[in-house]
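During the reporting period, our protein records have gained a C-alpha cell line. A sample record is set out beneath this paragraph:
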Amino acid sequence: MPRIFPTAGTTPILAAMLAAGLIGTASAQVYRWVDESGQTHMSDTPPPDTTRYDREVLDHRGLVIQRLDRARTPQELAAEQAERERREALEQQRAEQERVDRVLLQSFGSERELLHARDDRVALIEANMNLTRDKLGNLRDQLTQANTRIAGLEAGGRPVPEGLREQADSLQRQIRVQEAYLEERRQERDAVLDRFARDLARFRELRRRQADTQPRR
C-alpha cells in the first residue's frame, strides 16, 4: 500500500524521506507534490490523481531528477494556445516592421529625398486630376448645350430627336464616371500624403536611433 506523508516546508528533504521510511535502496524514488490546501506530500508512489498535481520525482539523495506537469484544463489549453498565437503575431509584426524600416532607409538617403519623392508623386496625381477637371468641364458644357436644345424644342412644341436625348444621357453617364474617377484620385492623393507623413516620422526616428548608437567622438 502506498505511503503518503505530509511534510513541513522547512523540513530537510532527505531527513523527511529517511524519517518517513521512503528510502530503502539507491534506486528508490519519491514523489513530492502540493495539494489544493498548500500541503506538501511525499510518497513512494505517484499522487492518487496524477492529472491534478504538478509533481517532482526525487532520488535517494533527495535531489529532484524529474518534474512532471499536471494535465491542463481545456480552458488552460485554450489560453496557452491564444498566448502562443499572440506571441507569433507580435513576432510577425516585429519582423515586418524591420523589413519596412530597412526598405525605408535603403530608399531614401535624407529627409529631402523623401520629401522630393512625395512631391513628385503628388504632382503626378494632381496633374491627372487637372486633366479630369478639364474633361468634366467640357462634358458639362456639352450637356448644358444638349439640354438647352431639348428645352427649346419642347418649349416650341417640336419633337426632340431620339439621338439628342441619347446624347444627353450619354453625357450624364460620362460625367458620373469622371466625377467618380476624380474622387478616387483625391483619395489617392490624401493616402499618399498620409503615408509619406508616417514614413517621414519613422525615417526621423530611425535616423535618431542610428545617431544614438554611433560612438561619440
In short: Residues 162-213 form the longest helix (52 residues). The two ends are 77 Å apart (CA to CA). The mean pLDDT is 86.
